[in-house]
Amino acid sequence: DTAVSQTPKYLVTQMGNDKSIKCEQNLGHDTMYWYKQDSKKFLKIMFSYNNKELIINETVPNRFSPKSPDKAHLNLHINSLELGDSAVYFCASSQEVGLPTDTQYFGPGTRLTVL
Amino acid sequence: QKEVEQDPGPLSVPEGAIVSLNCTYSNSAFQYFMWYRQYSRKGPELLMYTYSSGNKEDGRFTAQVDKSSKYISLFIRDSQPSDSATYLCAMSNQGAQKLVFGQGTRLTINP
Q1: Residue pLDDT, tens place only, B13-60
Q2: How is residue B60 annotated by DSSP?
Q3: Best residue in B99, B103, B106 to probe A by mutation, most A CBs within 10 Å?
Q4: For residue A80, how many other CB atoms are within 10 A of its CB?
Q5: Is B31 in CB contact (< 8 Å) with chain A?
Q6: Which chain B positions have a beta carbon within 8 Å of A105's beta carbon?
Q7: In what order do the strands lie in the sheet with B19-25?
Q8: Contacts of residue A58 in chain B, CB cutoff 8 Å?
Q9: Which pLDDT does position A1 carry in this prediction?
Q10: Going along A1-115, which residue ranges are E strands?
């Protein structure tokens, strides 16, 4: 039974397009995250939400807008896609926010390629 | 300079060897240290977590933290081909709401 799922798994699109990535967790966690992993494998946090409320917003361009319809879902919408947005985007969840000891569970990733 | 530095490798060793993976960091406020394992085309999964300085052992894996040197290590004993993956260190400080990750070291264990 998948704990953190993301759709789509692969996304290839043209520059300037708008796209969305969906994430769902069935762990009953209160906190969800979006990370970006670039081609050099650097994993950087973008956003985190706790009970649908934005907690972390790391200097991410305004073109990226997370939306949390409920605490089990955190979607990522990207406007006006640029070449530099090509990366693997991971969704993650944890029980609480602000507890470094709380394990984060990652989804399988969405590989975004902007042409 | 990045907050967390990790040699990206690749590192290739024969099966059965002892593997040593390391990270250095600059933020002395970090107190929580994790190692994540990421298989190809998969999301990272937590392998081990350590608080402050000291050692922690879990089966074939040992995590060490030396806060005085701002240096952490992960040792893998009797390495297996199934250990082939990218290993990412991650760290955080008390009250922080985010993890800071190293670049990850790609490890291959050759049968």
Answers
A1: 999 999 999 999 999 999 999 999 999 999 999 999 898 888 999 999
A2: T
A3: B99
A4: 12
A5: yes
A6: 45
A7: B4-5, B19-25, B71-76, B61-66, B54-58
A8: 98
A9: 63
A10: 4-7, 10-13, 19-25, 31-37, 43-50, 53-57, 64-70, 73-78, 87-94, 105-106, 110-114
